[in-house]
Specification:
The complex is a heterodimer of chains A (about 120) and B (about 110). Chain A has about 120 residues and is mostly beta strands. Chain A contains no helices and eleven strands. Chain B is mainly β. In chain B, a hairpin with a 6-residue loop joins strand 5 and strand 6. The N and C termini of chain B lie far apart (about 40 Å). At the A-B interface, strand 5, strand 9 and strand 10 of A face strand 5, strand 6, strand 10 and strand 11 of B.
């Protein structure tokens, strides 16, 4: 049974370039979350979707960040233009929204470095 | 107000001893779930244990147990018989049914000494 799949696993890009991170949630899950983790700020929730609909994007840092979930099996997080301060590990997680008993399953993360 | 508070940035424990990692939470939702995750140095987030707000008994999973004190709004993780492989960051999290949102604490870095 495949877990949450994220690609790429590592991304190195230059400041000003567009970056697209991809996520495939676990089949059957109806909630998807994007997190960012840095040493300074810890684990931050950027945005989450229920049934492909964005519910809370208050954690998205600024307009340079955007996320989409066109269907139940795919989501993207885009940064345009990227900046060095965007360097972080970006996690995607999925869950089943029915009660409190369903944990989030995390993907392996994408380590983004912006030079 | 912080939804999840972990007051111990770092902790040391001797191998084979038990250790308690603290977590307090804040919610007005009567239905919620509490979770602990482990993040080893390799970076992945590993689910450890879950406690529901209506559960009468404390959750246990192998060497992990959750000391749930509802009135005090605390959900401490107890690791018995620590092993070197337990050295990692540990995150406490809460999920409220109403918003289906997970809140994570700042984490506790546990170091197990041989």
């Amino acid at each position: 049974d495949a877990g949450v799949i994220q690609s790429p696993r590592h991304e190195v890009t230059e400041m000003g370039q567009e970056v697209t991170l991809r996520c495939k949630p676990i089949s059957g899950h109806n909630s998807l979350f994007w997190y960012r983790q840095t040493m300074m700020r810890g684990l931050e929730l950027l945005i989450y979707f229920n049934n492909n609909v964005p519910i809370d994007d208050s954690g998205m840092p600024e307009d340079r960040f955007s996320a989409k979930m066109p269907n139940a099996s795919f989501s993207t997080l885009k940064i345009q233009p990227s900046e060095p301060r965007d360097s972080a590990v970006y996690f995607c997680a999925s869950s089943f929204w029915d009660s409190t008993s369903y944990e989030q399953y995390f993907g392996p993360g994408t380590r983004l470095t912006v030079t | 107000a912080q939804k999840i508070t972990q007051t111990q940035p770092g902790m040391f424990v001797q191998e084979k001893e038990a250790v308690t990692l603290d977590c307090t939470y804040d919610t007005s939702d009567p239905s919620y779930g509490l979770f602990w995750y482990k993040q080893p140095s390799s970076g992945e987030m590993i689910f450890l244990i879950y406690q529901g707000s209506y559960d009468q008994q404390n959750a246990t999973e192998g060497r992990y147990s959750l000391n749930f004190q509802k009135a005090r709004k605390s959900a401490n993780l107890v690791i018995s018989a620590s092993q070197l492989g337990d050295s990692a960051m540990y995150f406490c999290a809460m999920r409220e049914v109403g918003f289906n949102k997970f809140y994570f604490g700042s984490g506790t870095k546990l170091n197990v000494k041989p």
